[in-house]
Design a protein that fits this description.
158 residues, mainly alpha, binds zinc ion
Length: 158
């Protein structure tokens, strides 16, 4: 008798565990909950049939996936792992919305910086324009022709 060597599936089903047992590599005896979960959701014999239809190199992933999905279905009998997927999609949507809002804010701030720089340049231009006008207009009164003609007119009157 190899009772102590039986896998979790064969222990659960109270049968002898053959040396080529399809469950044995994926449902070890030290983790009985793993087989109990897939057995509860899919039925032990269905799990065995699925594993047999799949190439050996994919059976570990398949067993992990079945166990994960079974646990999800036990925790959330209505949606199972679809509930997790839709929650994650919602998180992605919310994060994308948040990202778009932040990118909009960044664009707005960049525009404000550009406008502030433009205003500063405009102010500088206005100042230099005023300065130029002042410099240009200041000599104008001193070069007023009447002031230059006046001394000439004075000797003419004398
Ligand atoms: Zn077995």
């Amino acid at each position: 008798m190899m009772i102590s060597g039986r896998c979790a599936a064969c222990k659960n089903q109270r049968r002898r565990c053959p040396s080529d047992c399809i469950f044995s590599p994926h449902f070890p005896a030290n983790d009985p909950q793993r087989f109990a979960s897939v057995h509860k959701i899919y039925g032990g014999s269905n799990v065995g049939k699925m594993l047999q239809q799949i190439p050996p190199y994919l059976r570990e992933q398949t067993a992990n996936s079945l166990y994960f999905e079974a646990q999800c279905r036990i925790q959330d009998p209505v949606y199972g792992c679809v509930g997790i997927i839709s929650k994650l999609y919602e998180e992605i949507r919310n994060t994308e919305t948040e990202l778009a809002q932040i990118q909009t804010q960044i664009t707005c701030h960049k525009l404000q910086v550009v406008q502030a720089n433009n205003n500063a340049e405009t102010n500088m231009n206005l100042l230099s324009t005023v300065g130029a006008e002042t410099n240009f207009q200041m000599p104008a009164p001193s070069t007023n022709p009447t002031e230059f003609q006046w001394p000439n007119q004075v000797p003419w009157f004398h």
